[in-house]
Specification:
By secondary structure, the chain is an alpha/beta fold. Helix content is about 50%, strand content about 15%. The protein contains nine helices and eight strands. The strands form two sheets. A five-stranded parallel sheet has the order 2-3-1-4-8, sandwiched between helices. Strands 6-5-7 form a three-stranded antiparallel sheet. Bound molecules: adenosine monophosphate.
Length: about 210
């Protein structure tokens, strides 16, 4: 099963992708997580991507396309995968489709998780992420057991640079302009399913499973 999750920043793509991955025993592939690791390692890709990420802009297509195509050709993707944060532009979606077609493969479903902007801002400003394993928390709804410490690995929790309110607004604008056209792109191909992301994590997950039945 090859899946894509679409949705505005903070809508819960990462959380739901993790739950889908565990349920269907497929890898969750997040371009955001991969890029943040590259930035932390100060690799060539990380150095190129860093300034785009901190200002909430998209990293150039060619960088993320080669990153994702390399990742999905790994053996652990043979039974499928769930993409979180890719594609984010029509150019990326087309590149993915072409690369999959060359391998005789295709995406199965694209799920758009949708929620109100006000709710998303409230979620994002209270989001904290482990600097080591990238597990995410919400200070109010999903707080860590010990302040500032990851329950899973003990790493320090940090606020993502791009989760500050002014950057959040530009990320929304970027989504509307560059990523939202993908909803239409996949709808026309009869590949799109929609889920209401205003609900609690388990309720959203139940809707997702229902859609994927
Ligand atoms: P995310 O964790 O998915 O919110 O991604 C964080 C940031 O990484 C984005 O604001 C972009 O700067 C960059 N990024 C992640 N995925 C992509 C993508 N598919 N295309 C371009 N930039 C991306």
């Amino acid at each position: 099963m090859n899946l894509v999750l679409l949705g505005m920043p903070g809508v819960g793509k990462g959380t739901q992708a993790q739950k889908i991955a565990a349920h269907f025993l497929i890898p969750k592939i997040s371009t955001g997580d991969m890029l943040r690791s590259a930035v932390a390692q100060k690799s060539e890709l990380g150095i190129k991507a860093s300034s785009y990420m901190t200002t909430g802009l998209l990293v150039p297509d060619e960088l993320v396309i080669s990153l994702i195509l390399e990742r999905i050709s790994q053996p652990d993707c043979n039974q499928g995968y769930i993409l979180d944060g890719f594609p984010r532009t029509v150019v990326q979606a087309q590149a993915l489709e072409d690369a999959l077609a060359k391998r005789g493969a295709s995406l199965d479903w694209v799920i758009s998780i949708e929620a109100s902007e006000d709710l998303l801002v409230a979620r994002l400003v209270n989001r904290r992420q482990c600097g080591v394993c990238q597990e995410t928390y919400h200070l109010e709804f999903n707080p860590p057991l010990q302040p500032q410490k990851c329950d899973r690995c003990g790493g320090e929790l940090i606020q993502r640079e791009d989760d500050k309110e002014s950057t959040i607004r530009s990320r929304f604008a970027v989504y509307q302009k560059q990523t939202f056209p993908l909803v239409n792109f996949y709808e026309k191909k009869n590949m799109l399913k929609r889920v209401n992301g205003n609900e609690a994590v388990e309720v959203v997950f139940a809707q997702l499973l229902e859609q994927l039945k």
